[in-house]
Amino acid sequence: TEPAQVGRLRPGSGFLTPTLGIVGCQVRRDPPDSTERYTRWINQLTAEQLLTQVFTSNGPTVIMPTWFCSRAWFSHVGPFDEGGRGVPEDLLFFYEHLRKGGGVIRVDQSLLLYRYHPQAATHSVLEATIWTHRVRFLEEQALPRWAAFTIWNAGKQGRRLYRSLTAANRHKVVAFCDVDEKKIRKGFYCHEDSQERPKPRIPILHFRAARPPFIICVKLDLTGGAFEDNLRSLHLQEGQDFLHFS
Hints:
Elements: E1 21-30, H1 36-44, H2 49-52, H3 71-77, H4 89-99, E2 103-115, H5 127-141, E3 149-152, H6 156-164, H7 167-170, E4 173-178, H8 181-186, E5 188-190, E6 201-206, E7 214-216, H9 226-232, E8 242-244
Parallel strand pairs: 1-2, 3-4, 3-7, 4-6, 7-8
Antiparallel strand pairs: 5-6
């Protein structure tokens, strides 16, 4: 089966075939005020975003405790990685599922009470481990489609992504963009650890002066809507002109 084309699937297309998909649902959190941003994200993604937002730090776009799939499809994709604590087995299975052309379906009813507690096994997975898997999946599934791209965020997360890319993909980065006037006035980011001579200097532009496609390293739902308004003002198509990574 050919891998799903991220951002090119639409409701009613073949990816909704349950035999080739993971089916999940909306959830209620307990306590209700725990992980509020994450809960909003997992419950409000559109059908298209279930595939376009698979690169973010939130992980699978339908959460594993809600998953259903056919036994035949599970056998085709699986099994789960049984490496124990510290292994993001749900993320790894989800990525393999997507590589094999699987779709993602969410039932828009809250059918699970999803409890949060500090001792949950998910907290044993290091952020650096998840970051590495996310970057490799982005490079494998999304970046080959683009000859050049801009990283949206000239701050810590954007620079970290740039440094984490392979040399070939770093060469595709034509600019960083931001709204921070101080960063924009500096004019460029210098990759000091590069072995290249001269060391790469990547321009830093205002987001309105930058050109898509964008890899966005700005967290959603944190700026009172300011970032989302800026993004909407550009009239871009998610999956084609930009992808969220944070």
